TrEMBL record:
Chain positions with 4-aspartylphosphate modification: D56
Name the record gives this protein: Putative sensory histidine kinase YfhA
Annotated Response regulatory domain residues: 7-121
InterPro entries referenced in this protein's UniProt entry, alphabetically: AAA+_ATPase (IPR003593), AAA_lid_NorR (IPR058031), CheY-like_superfamily (IPR011006), Homeodomain-like_sf (IPR009057), P-loop_NTPase (IPR027417), Sig_transdc_resp-reg_receiver (IPR001789), Sigma_54_int (IPR002078), Sigma_54_int_dom_CS (IPR025944)
Species, as recorded: Marinobacterium lacunae
Alphabetically ordered keywords of this record: ATP-binding, Kinase, Nucleotide-binding, Phosphoprotein, Transcription, Transcription regulation, Transferase, Two-component regulatory system
Amino acid sequence: MNSARRSVLLVDDDSSLLQLLSIRLRAAGYLVETAGSAEQALARIAVSRPGAIVTDLRMHGMDGMELFEQIHHQDPTLPVILLTAHGTIPDAVKATQRGLFGYLTKPFDDKALLELLERALNAPGSDEHATESNTNAPWRAGIITASQTMEALLAEAELVAASEASVLIQGPSGTGKEVLARALHMASPRHTKPLVAINCAAIPEQLLESELFGHAKGAFTGATSAHKGLFQTGSGGTVFLDEIGDMPLALQAKLLRVLQDREIRPVGASQSIPVDVRIVSATHRNLETAIAAGDFREDLYYRLNVVTLTLPPLRQRPEDIPLLARHFLGQLREKHPHRAQDFTPEALERLVGYEWPGNVRQLLNVVEQCCVLCTTALVPASLVSRALHEKPTGIHTYAEAKQQFERDYLVQLLKITNGQVTEAARLAGRNRTEFYRLLQRNHLTPGMFKQVEES
């Protein structure tokens, strides 16, 4: 088994116990990272997602239960194991009902801990599966990311894919909702059957029903032959309804009946036809607001929204911008033969510093324009500025960042610079000494980021 897929983060403010437990787990073949406090653990998780977390309950400052609550809120698929004293067992039991993977009562047997860890690392959505997906799994081959937020989302997606639950994908326009829908289909048991997609906002209302459910011969003027709709074409597979929030109310009622009865009636037909499809839908709209305005049916919303996956805007995953830009640069070589092999550091800095209101789709368009116009081996910053049609905002200095986002801000800088403190301090507008103080206050070290780069 790949050691990177057996990574465990140990959290305890007792250094001697932390060292002892580390020795035992390393001897059992685990890749062990340690944190002397819950705050330090959160900083490490922000840099690199472990396979599982083992934390003591009683610690100075934030305790193990609070740590679990924060981790579970941010990444509910990350297994957390709690080490607890006998008197706090009721608290641990309650936590398992809220998603804690398991707990052990001190003093515990090493064998019990190893068995619990193995179950945690083999659980669907755990880092063992996620790390394998990062490098090998074809279901997510079209998703380029180094973002912990995205990795947590993909771990959830892999869990959901194995079920038959309807999925609603939310996120701003251009974030890649259809790409995620295709990944869901490829990870599902239905992957050998068709994935059929339709944009509900792009087809006139009078044609949308026929496209979805089909029509009988002679159903309307021009219907010279029977037509199979997407629900029949996608039989056994997945139907992806993009921009479901723009579906007309009359069709919403018909779609609801299809989901309830698992059968369709083509336009002009006298008999219904059974269908076997999984529904994945997507929207950039706030459907709860649309329900309040009377534009979307609440009963259909709950049918579609069994599980929600929310894609973050590109500005919230800046570490992915250089990866995506270089990926697009390589992809576009077939479409537009060009000399550009990479971006200058200044060009990448401008890409990373931009707000990206159009998200990944806009980044692709900007890179494509740079490819077409570039005459050198490196795309210069001037071409990026021209493609953006405005002065880039640049990376904010630390003084502009809000206090509560301090750790995330520093993590983003060190990810972008691959742990180069001099460059990170320059981008933050701080000298090296002061920047090191900020890192120490947030339990961060440059080596944490260099390890991520090398792995």
